[in-house]
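hey
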């Protein structure tokens, strides 16, 4: 990235970071914080993530960081802050910042001043109000016998308005989250979510690890995106250490990522059929998904390819017989999915349920920062594989075709999944055809200078982001992982408005957002 042009454009002293992703970092002051955010928004940039770090050993005890995705790549801004003064609120510019700011306070005790919504997000009363687990003075192992606090939901008043509370414990096997509906009859006037029930203290756990084994934790943040998180973490480590991984390893990582994308889309399409009363769709797609992940286990050790990506490369390879098996399966799955797509398209019951349901128009999607697969269904044409955030040596050659739709409804999100499956199958064929020879991993170097690294990977939901800071001995000071569900959960509250309560499971499934990846 051209740091001089960025510095001139945004008025901050940016410097380029090492690594595969084009990232520039800058230390800024409070007067720059909002000005740069407004400039990024005006340039159609988007907010990726917001987090805080305890640097009590330095002159500035806390650092608040934000990352934006702009045309040139990623911008990482670091703002010194203290607990009393806090930092300027970003939510009026980027609405997705609201929950990130609330979580930052729960974990670190640094408030966004000027913010309207300062309710808790992760704490829920489970720990005292003066206890902030990401501060160095706390171990994170403290135990409290606290009662959960009532959450101050926003109430809707008027004739005939009722409230329905759903969760946090649900009848199925899904993860916990509370949904508060305000309704008239069955029509939804407002939905308010409360998440954070899956909080596991992962940010604190990272500080007990070293660069070489942090990928084991990253790969367990969200089991359905283990490849994406592992790759993003390893990308950040390799940037921090200046490690150049073998070219074959890059291509193998891309192969694993596309297989993960297909597996999850197959599962979703079955569930979306089931939620619209087409149990045939569930059974057929479940069978295809099971066949797919069994081949994963045969070729890559684990059904979901967990721990296959390591700092410096991969621990798995594929030989000629494996390539033949992979290509044969791609041909079989492609044919089956093509047949099922015709059935889904011609089934009048499905189309009646899908069309116009849970619609997020492109204008609203842009304003709220809807991203990833759901964003592309609302004409938000961003894909880290295409937009130069992932290893150019692989994805530039593959020429990934973005799949975008404009309708922004459940039907569009279904169609994006179908087309992305076909595109990923095409990519798998290209990958094994162009797969270079050579080593699959290399030892990490010990060249840790500034200790910063960033990884960004287009997972099946959207961009998975990892920001890493390590000391010169390879110990992790801070590792912040971010799931695209942070951006997309708030949009679900808008998507349901005007639809009826019984349609919520289908709308929710059409997004299929992560609880575990969100509630670190």
């Amino acid at each position: 990235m051209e740091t001089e042009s960025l510095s001139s454009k945004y008025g901050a002293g940016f410097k380029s970071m090492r690594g595969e992703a084009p990232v520039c970092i800058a230390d800024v002051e409070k007067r720059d914080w909002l000005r740069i955010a407004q400039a990024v928004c005006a340039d159609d940039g988007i907010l990726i993530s917001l987090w805080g770090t305890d640097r009590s050993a330095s002159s500035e005890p806390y650092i608040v960081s934000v990352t934006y995705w702009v045309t040139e790549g990623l911008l990482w801004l670091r703002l010194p802050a203290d607990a009393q003064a806090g930092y300027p609120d970003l939510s009026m510019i980027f609405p997705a910042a609201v929950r990130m700011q609330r979580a930052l306070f729960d974990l670190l005790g640094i408030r966004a001043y000027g913010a309207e919504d300062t309710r808790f997000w992760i704490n829920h009363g489970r720990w005292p109000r003066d206890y902030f687990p990401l501060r160095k003075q706390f171990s994170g192992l403290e135990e409290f016998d606290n009662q959960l606090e009532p959450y101050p939901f926003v109430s809707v008043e008027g004739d005939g308005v009722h409230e329905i509370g759903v969760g946090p414990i649900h009848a199925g096997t899904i993860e916990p989250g509370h949904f508060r509906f305000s309704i008239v009859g069955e029509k939804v006037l407002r939905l308010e979510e409360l998440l954070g029930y899956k909080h596991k203290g992962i940010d604190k756990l990272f500080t007990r690890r070293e660069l070489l084994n942090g990928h084991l934790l990253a790969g367990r943040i969200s089991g359905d995106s283990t490849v994406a998180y592992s790759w993003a973490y390893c990308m950040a480590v390799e940037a921090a250490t200046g490690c150049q991984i073998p070219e074959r390893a890059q291509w193998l990582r891309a192969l694993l990522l596309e297989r993960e994308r297909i597996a999850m889309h197959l599962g979703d399409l079955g569930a979306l059929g089931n939620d619209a009363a087409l149990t045939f769709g569930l059974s057929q797609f479940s069978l295809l998904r099971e066949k797919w992940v069994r081949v994963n286990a045969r070729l890559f050790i684990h059904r979901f390819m967990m721990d296959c990506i390591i700092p410096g490369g991969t621990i798995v390879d594929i030989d000629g017989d494996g390539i033949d098996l992979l290509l044969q399966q791609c041909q079989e799955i492609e044919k089956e999915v093509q047949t099922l797509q015709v059935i889904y398209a011609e089934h009048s019951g499905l189309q009646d349920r899908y069309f116009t349901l849970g619609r997020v128009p492109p204008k609203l999607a842009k304003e709220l920062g809807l991203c990833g697969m759901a964003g592309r269904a609302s004409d938000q044409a961003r894909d880290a594989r295409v937009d130069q955030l992932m290893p150019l040596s692989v994805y530039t050659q593959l020429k990934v075709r973005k799949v975008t739709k404009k309708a922004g409804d459940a039907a569009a999100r279904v169609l994006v999944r179908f087309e992305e499956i076909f595109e990923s199958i095409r990519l798998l064929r290209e990958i094994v055809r162009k797969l270079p020879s050579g080593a699959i991993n290399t030892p990490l170097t010990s060249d840790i200078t500034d200790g910063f690294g960033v990884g960004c990977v287009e997972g099946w939901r959207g961009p998975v982001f990892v920001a890493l800071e390590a000391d010169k001995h390879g110990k992790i000071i801070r590792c912040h992982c971010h799931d695209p569900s942070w951006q997309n959960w708030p949009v679900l509250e808008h998507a349901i408005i005007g639809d009826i309560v019984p349609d919520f499971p289908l709308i929710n499934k059409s997004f299929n957002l992560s609880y575990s990846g969100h509630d670190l």
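The chain has two domains: 3-113, 202-435+445-511. The mean pLDDT is 93.
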